[in-house]
Amino acid sequence: MKFSGDSSRVGDDGAYDEFLKVMMDFQAQRIDTRGVTTRAKELFKGHTITLPFQLETTG
């Protein structure tokens, strides 16, 4: 998975850094695809405009 590097879309709440940690955990096989999905949904909650339709969250 590639991320654009434009952290302005996710705000200044540390979400970009946390997202990078999630991706590093996945690359190091510390978490699986389900773990990435779970963590990403929580991380981007309220930022549904940046998520694909299937991953949109409420709240």
Automatic annotation (TrEMBL):
Keyword check for Nucleus: yes
Biological process according to GO: regulation of DNA-templated transcription
Keywords: Nucleus
Keyword Nucleus attached: yes
Subcellular location: Nucleus
Matching Pfam families: PAH
GO CC aspect terms: nucleus
Protein name: Paired amphipathic helix protein
Species of origin: Medicago truncatula
Lineage of producing organism: Eukaryota, Viridiplantae, Streptophyta, Embryophyta, Tracheophyta
